[in-house]
Design goal:
Rossmann fold; 19 strands; 5-stranded parallel beta sheet; 431 residues; alpha/beta; disordered C terminus; elongated; 4-stranded parallel beta sheet
């Protein structure tokens, strides 16, 4: 609780395991920024102590929070990687697979930033703590600030490339964009590079296989000699392995992003049920889907069809306007929704929807294409979702919804298709 009296600030009851902390600070005596850090340790042990921080700034603003606990070195080793393939959807699939890989090797995963035209910190998009329920992780910023100076210092930084060991190809972790700018964002240069040909596709829960993967890596790169494995790319396949999809349940949105999306949802839907759809209609996507018919595995397509029974087709990849309108109308009627949200990279068919849904009195909404992360949140929270089977962007939404037992389907799939309609993974209720 924060109270003010007689030009004082009193911060009360920051509970630790055994004690509460009480502070007061005369803050109006200062006009410049200052910081006061206090530690309460009445009857608690050092392990139980909690630092409280009062940061008071100019213009009368006061920030209160808990001091950040400095990370300690993990003797089991670390994995760094560059999530440098494609846009967010591809990077997210690689992230899931890399978590499985880090767990298989029993090394702490350093949470690399996502890559747009710049580095965007993992914690800017997602909470870090929930991932620790799956495996040990640390943010890239914390690793470089607190651990790298002593344990991975300049002059002793190795990089590792997956390529034929005896090939003439050069292992250069910083060649090209986005690889160079990614590492430069943390002022990382490599003093030595090593090639490897080792298994990298870990399967969550497959203990025998993961044990073999760990043994191969430990033999080639023992942790006492190679405590930090900085990999040029992600040690994971695209499209991702289906067995790893359930790892998505540990990805929880950062409060800032979720709050911003919630503001849009409240404004648009006013608490009513809504259907969200994802359309890929840009010219690049149209070209990518032109000759897709007959291909068994195409980008993220394994998420919506059985590879040994059915090939990808154009309607899965680039559905006709007629099919989009009909499928969406059926979904709205099925759940009794009067609100439609459209996320798209180009053409939204908004006017077509308004004409087609006028008799149903459905309101049609979309946001700027400059807000893709907000689109992801809104699609993930919808009462029903229709995605693009081939798109990794849709795949992220589908995995998010599967983990929360929310119904979904895809273009050219039945609304109640047992393979796509209800998530098969552990349900999670947002608190």
């Amino acid at each position: 609780m924060l109270t003010t009296f007689n030009n004082m600030v009193k911060i009360e009851q920051f509970p630790t395991k055994k004690t509460s902390v009480y502070f007061c600070c005369a803050f109006l005596l200062f006009s410049a920024c200052s910081t006061v850090v206090c530690n309460a340790n009445d009857s608690a042990s050092d392990d139980d102590a909690t630092e409280a921080v009062i940061i008071h700034e100019a213009e009368g603003r006061v920030k209160v929070g808990l001091a950040k606990e400095k990370p300690t070195w993990d003797p089991r080793g670390y994995i760094l990687f560059c999530p440098c393939m494609g846009r967010f959807g591809n990077q997210a699939e690689h992230y899931v697979g890399t978590l499985a890989f880090a767990k298989a090797l029993d090394r702490t995963l350093v949470l690399a930033p996502f890559r747009t035209y710049q580095n965007v910190g993992f914690e800017d998009y997602f909470l870090v703590e929930p991932l620790k329920q799956y495996h040990r992780v640390i943010s890239m910023g914390d690793f470089m600030e607190y651990l790298a100076p002593q344990h991975w210092p300049v002059g002793k930084r190795r990089g590792y490339c997956y390529m034929q060991v005896n090939s003439e190809s050069v292992c250069d972790l910083k060649a090209g964009n986005p690889f160079g700018p990614f590492w430069d964002g943390f002022h990382i240069d490599f003093d030595e590079t090593l090639k490897f040909e080792l298994p990298i596709y870990a399967q969550d829960g497959n203990l025998p296989q993961n044990k073999q993967i760990k043994a191969a890596w430990d033999e080639r790169f023992p942790v006492d000699e190679h405590p930090v494995l900085a990999l040029r790319g992600a040690p994971a396949p695209f499209p991702m392995l289906e067995v790893n999809r359930q790892i998505q349940q540990y990805f929880h949105w950062a409060p800032g992003i979720f709050a911003e999306a919630k503001g849009y949802m409240d404004q648009m839907f006013k608490g009513e049920k809504y259907v969200a759809i994802h359309l890929r209609t840009g010219i690049d996507w149209e070209r990518a889907c032109r000759d897709v018919a007959g291909i068994r595995r195409y980008m993220a397509s394994p998420q919506c069809h059985e590879l040994d029974k059915e090939a990808t087709n154009r309607e899965m990849c680039y559905p006709s306007v007629k099919h989009v309108l009909e499928h969406t109308r059926n979904a709205l009627q099925k759940i009794g929704a009067k609100q439609l949200f459209i996320a798209t990279d180009k053409h939204s068919y908004e006017e077509e929807f308004k004409r087609d849904l006028k008799s149903l009195k459905v309101s049609v909404h979309r946001l700027s294409s400059d807000l893709p992360m907000i689109d992801l949140v809104i699609m993930g929270e919808a009462d029903f979702f229709i995605g693009n089977c081939v798109s990794s962007f849709s795949s992220f939404v589908k995995r998010y919804r599967d983990a929360r037992n929310k119904p979904s389907t895809f273009w050219n799939r039945a609304l109640d298709d047992p393979m796509t309609s209800i998530g098969e993974y552990v349900a999670y209720k947002r608190t």
